């Protein structure tokens, strides 16, 4: 993830050698920055530097509930929108350092209940909508999992297929790593987003066009972090390798596989994997937030080619909900592959989701006080995401924020967010206490 910090650059590796999508946003060097507007070149440079620092890791309107006119539909899965959840989302936006905007969508059997707070773009007062595009960050890893598991179901791939078999050009030390280990982050692959050369190149040009299929070259000389299968460690390299294995097995580009195996079957008309920095309109503007400075718009500061299958997908709340219902619900998977998908090891998503987290194959279980849902989280400069659904795929929840919140950038706000996410899960599962609370 990229945040926006100072413009000073040195020849030494920057201190933010964190995960590309989970790293902190350093303090801004210009606390009196104006609200987003066309900036001179120097202002754009400041924003870009801040975004890079975070990658390698306020006006707000009233909260709204119910459907947008048109595509969102109306009403909700449990009758009138819950006022406590509405207040909770608004309080998150109103918190110092909170996101300028937030939207949560609960869907049950095709009926959606929409909660929103703040704005989709500072200075406009326009509330977030379910058809607004946004960067879904590491939630994109679940998409690579869907591709891999569907190819496994079809016999084109096997979960015990190794890097050595499918990608023999990669370092020999990695050859024994299996597809299963890549999908549940027990591979031991070094994380390319922590590599000093990658970070330096990204810092020099945040919109740099990387060769997405050569991202693992940055760590090709590094040993495995541990013996494959012996430990859990989240790595952005894992899902790059997953996409490359899918391409090697089929002879088709990963983007084409996404369209054929995921987008079309699930009716995802507003989801894509771009290479550049632009976003389709309309979109949720993402911000780097660091009071007392004004939020900086970082929506288009970074190109997506440097994250690719690990975090480059752009979607909408509506599409993201449809995807997670399909993936968590096992759509297209037979019993054997489905059992493997939902075999879990100790490990949290990044950032951690609600309740107790465990890692399956490109999906996490979130065991809350009201029950368990399955999904993925993610964050990227300007965006934080949760997408989760029930095992039967009939109920889904997405929570999207327009700032990056994780244990490094704002641990207190993350704790508050996780509590609110759990409340939304309870609403989704209709587990209300006798006093009406969740």
Mean of residue pLDDT values: 86
Helical content band: 25-40%
Shape: globular
Radius of gyration: 20 Å
Structure in words:
There is one protein chain. By secondary structure, this protein is of the alpha+beta class. It is 29% helix and 14% strand. The chain has eleven helices and 13 strands. Strands 1-3-2-13-12-11-10-9-8 form a nine-stranded antiparallel β-sheet, sandwiched between helices. Strand 2 (101-108) and strand 3 (111-118) form a beta hairpin. Helix 2 (83-94) runs antiparallel to helix 11 (411-429), helix 3 (140-153) runs parallel beside helix 7 and helix 3 (140-153) packs across helix 8 (254-266). The radius of gyration is 20 Å and the shape is globular. The model is unreliable at 1-40, 58-67 and 69-79 (pLDDT under 50).
